[in-house]
Amino acid sequence: MASDGIGPMRAGWQLPGMVELPRWALARDTVRHVGEPVAAVFAETRAAAEDAAEKVNVVYEPLPPVEEACFHWTRGDASAVEQAFSQAAHRIELELVNNRLCGAAIENRGMAAVPGPSGLTLYCATQAPHHLRHALCAELGIGEHELRIVSPDMGGGFGYKGKHYPEETILAWAARRLRRPVRWMAARSESFLSDTQGRDHRTKAVLALDEEGRFLALRVDTRADVGAYVSTFGAAIPGPIYSALLAGVYRTPAIYVEVNGVYSNTVPTDAYRGAGRPEACYVLERLVDQAARKLGIDRAEIRRRNLIPKEAMPYKTPLGPTYDCGDFPRMLDRALQLADYAGFQQRKQSKLRGIGIACYVESSGVAPSRLAGIMGARFGFYESAQVRVAPDGSVSAYLGTHNHGQGHATSFAQILAAQLGIPMERISIHEGDTAEVPVGTGTFGSRSIAVGGSALQVASQKIIAKGRKIAAHLLEAAAGDIEFEQGSFRVAGTDRAVSFAQVAGAAYVPHNYPLDALEPGLDENAFYDPPNFAFSNGVHVCEVEVDPETGAAELVSYHAVDDVGTVINPMIVEGQLHGGLAQGIGQALAERTVYEEGQLLSASFMDYALPRAADLPAFVSELDESQPCTHNPLGAKGCGESGAIGAPAAVMSALLDALQNIGVEDLEMPATPHRIWQAIMRK
Description:
Layout lengths: L45 H9 L13 E9 L1 H10 L2 E9 L2 E2 L7 E7 L2 E6 L4 H12 L6 E4 L15 H13 L3 E4 L2 H7 L2 E2 L2 E9 L5 E13 L9 H8 L9 E10 L13 H19 L3 H8 L8 E2 L5 E2 L4 H11 L5 H4 L5 E12 L4 H6 L8 E7 L5 E5 L8 H13 L6 E4 L17 H28 L6 E4 L2 E4 L5 E3 H9 L14 E6 L5 E13 L6 E11 L6 H20 L5 E2 L2 E2 L19 E4 L18 H18 L13 H10 L1
Parallel strand pairs: 5-6, 10-11, 16-17, 23-26
Antiparallel strand pairs: 1-11, 2-9, 3-8, 4-5, 4-7, 9-10, 12-13, 14-22, 15-16, 15-21, 18-19, 19-20, 22-23, 24-25
Helix pairs in contact: 7-16, 12-13, 13-14, 15-16
């Protein structure tokens, strides 16, 4: 690969002052983590390849484990924070660990590279085909027209399948070199060793309050482990993304955040459902709970006193982001009502039963390209959509997003059906193929509807605008007099009309057509680059009961109220929220990636525990649509990560509430039965 001039894998973000170690698809000279590819074996069958791989002998010179600086990132006003602390009546301090996680999708990563006369086709389970094409072409030294990426439906993504991996470069290079198709599919053991992982923060946080429990200042110092290399979003998540959300839903006048990214001899960390937002929520909500206990204020009341009111919107936080809308007090009150928070003491028959609250806000609809560029992104975050109307009036839509469980074929078709007034059965949705969709960004960061759906809406409006001109010619009227409603173009104030299908037919059979003013055809493109993030938010309330003999925690109930803006398909949104809750609960109670001197100890499902259906309660959730996003045409906010953001904080809040009567004040995630039992025994 070196002699062929294959270039290094570059991170997708370059933070100021970041030290980026060279990363090669096959290690050159140095291996930095267990699971880094060193050699590749090609054979006619998988069995033969596996047998040959067993015969590969690598001579290693052991090196000491490292923990080296990668980046230093700060946000906020340090001097204002220090001044506020000097005048504060109370200081609340916490040290927290946000446990490292594996994505563990039901389908492992896999791909096939097929050379052809016009270039290479890579069939690959990726959430971001266009980003991958750009990266691979830069490494291979070829033009983007020479590489086609096809990513069909796949069994789960969760962020980590949207990042660039060594195997993609190896297969693309090998297929071109051998001039033969090459296929690779990870075993589960390989996935544990090589898939990017998530979280892994160690944080010291201090909150300053006045006598009445109002927040004055917040200082957060986080050490974020990026692993052996900076992955695609590896520096952005603990740096710009995490730090931007540490104001949460609260009016805290002064905040200062300092993040130190460090290298270690572990698999690189990157996006995992929530990606920086769960970490920020966990820090804030643990601090708020601790403050309530120390000051003797009810946990709901201390939140209520500090929430940003609806009247303050748009609200610019001390860390930079501007929330365009939101009614945080309404969300809290409704969640408490839904969960019957006031009646908890009557239900508390067990000594070790607790109730927890978590308020969250997230930057969904990733992302304004301008802001991302300021923070070090090496690519844009717009989305593209093409709406192609056939002569019979049926519609095909092509988007740069990617579907892997989000139900895009339904939601996007609903948007088009509502805009164009045609049945959903007449609409087909196409994603995941760079030959069909020349440019795009992908699906991650809760962006598909807020950004991709907005691009689709803009493209459909262009279709309607052109359709008005065609209809005006057919009806011998001025274009300004043409109204479009329910799939029909009508001269205003009359019954003279033509259908959408008739206009489409005229566009492609232009016998009676204004050729001097319009091109034939009905096919429009749109790019949408959001001016701001869409700030989803919500409140989750969890009830748990702990068995003092075993430490086992049972989730008795879980109530959630979420503001995800305008909802296109309630059932799909509900499914997304439930999936996020399951993963957030998994982090709180079971999941943990463990390394010891560079060796992965949790490399199978015997050692890495995922939540099962029996571990979860029947979720009760509501969607609040009273605050649609003000700056995208659909009013939509993201929903795919909300559950994973609020759940860890809500579950741990409930557990610590259950255990406070016996003196337990701190507990690390995952709160396994053994950890809970140990905490009980110590008291």
